[in-house]
Amino acid sequence: MNLTQQSMIGRGEWRTARGNWNFTDDAGGTSATSPFTVFSVTGDVYAQAFGLCQVTVASVGGAATIELGIGGNTAALIAQTAADDLDQYETWQDAGPEANPGAVPLDARGFVIANGADVIMTIGAANLTAGDVDFVARWFPISDDGDVTAT
């Protein structure tokens, strides 16, 4: 067995992490402390991510944007989107949310997230005042300590 084969044994099993964010108009809105950690990552992982809107997202003046990524590349996983475009039961995996049923193919674009870079949601331009989104990460570990958990 060569080194490459040996180093990948037991690491390539797909796993899922799921978390929820509820946006309410608390003390001026939700973006005051943006970015938010959606998934805590340790080690190195390969991941795909999407959101499923449970309650329509709204913002002050309809001006807010949202994106999902990592520090230094805040739109790496999901491109910047007008927050008010995300309606109930739509799937959010790119700049244009998908109507129900939302297509998230099993071979959707994935990303290597290295060195424990957490997955963050960044809100820009205005505060979010309403909305509820379930976030899902489909991932597998690359390093021995690779892990993803919802925060």
Residues in helix, %: under 10%
* Euclidean distance between termini CA atoms: 39 Å
Average pLDDT over all residues: 85
- Helix/strand/pairing category: mainly beta
The helix count comes to 1
Using the alpha-carbon principal axes, give the shape: globular
Write up this protein.
It is a single chain. The chain has 151 residues and is mostly beta strands. It has one domain (16-150). The protein has one helix spanning 3-8; strands at 15-22, 36-42, 45-59, 65-70, 73-82, 91-92, 111-113, 119-124, 128-141, 147-150. Strands 1, 3, 6, 7 and 9 form a five-stranded antiparallel sheet that branches. Strands 5-4-8-2-10 form a five-stranded antiparallel sheet, with no helix packed on it. The longest helix has 6 residues, at 3-8. Residues 1-9 have low confidence and may be disordered.
Descriptive keywords:
1 helix, 10 strands, five-stranded antiparallel sheet, disordered N terminus, mainly beta, about 150 residues
Write the layout of secondary structure elements.
Layout: H1 3-8, E1 15-22, E2 36-42, E3 45-59, E4 65-70, E5 73-82, E6 91-92, E7 111-113, E8 119-124, E9 128-141, E10 147-150
Antiparallel strand pairs: 1-9, 2-8, 2-10, 3-6, 3-7, 3-9, 4-5, 4-8
